[in-house]
Amino acid sequence: MLMSESTQGGDGPVMPVIPVLPIIEGFRTRPAVPPPGTIFALGWLMAELFDPRRRVSTTVRQPPFDAEPPLYKPLPPALMAQVEGSSPDFVVDFSEDKQGFYINGKKYSPSDPPMTTVSIGALHHWRVKNESHEVHPFHIHQVHFLIYAQNGVKLERPEWLDTVNVPVEGNVDLVMDFTDPIIRGMSLFHCHLLSHEDKGMMAKILFK
Predict the structure, then answer these.
(1) What is the topology classification, in CATH, of domain 79-207?
(2) Nearest-CA neighbor of 188 among 142, 148, 127?
């Protein structure tokens, strides 16, 4: 299970920590706790853990000296600063009226083409806006994101999430982790309130 833990005494970013990783190749790996200030690429981590080429065993024994190291991939601070400081690669705009709920002015239909297409292998900057008078929780399938700013103000404790509340008449800025090499095909992002997504606040995303 992914857990959040402050990396710099409460003043730095929040990183995902995996206290005990699954048993891989017949051995239990050591806890994957990187140095302070480290930020994970979750897509890379998930790909490593669920790579079908790895044999998962129920046998638990002490690992030999040549056992695999903990699985995590630090993200360079310069790369994170570059993504966070860039213009949004994509904007999600939640809105509603008496006829329904919308993303970027469109009500969802199962026959819709993808609203956006992403080439797997990079981090993207997304901005999610809420034009309505109620909170909408943004959720995306398959990937995680780092929320680092709300209403244009950087957060003291950025967090890796897959769902975040978008404030009334406000916005959030996200670093989308599109680095997982095993993600392909059509997926969805939407408001995580069932009555809202069922009434149109949902859209497709194509991973290539």
Answers:
(1) Immunoglobulin-like (2.60.40)
(2) 142
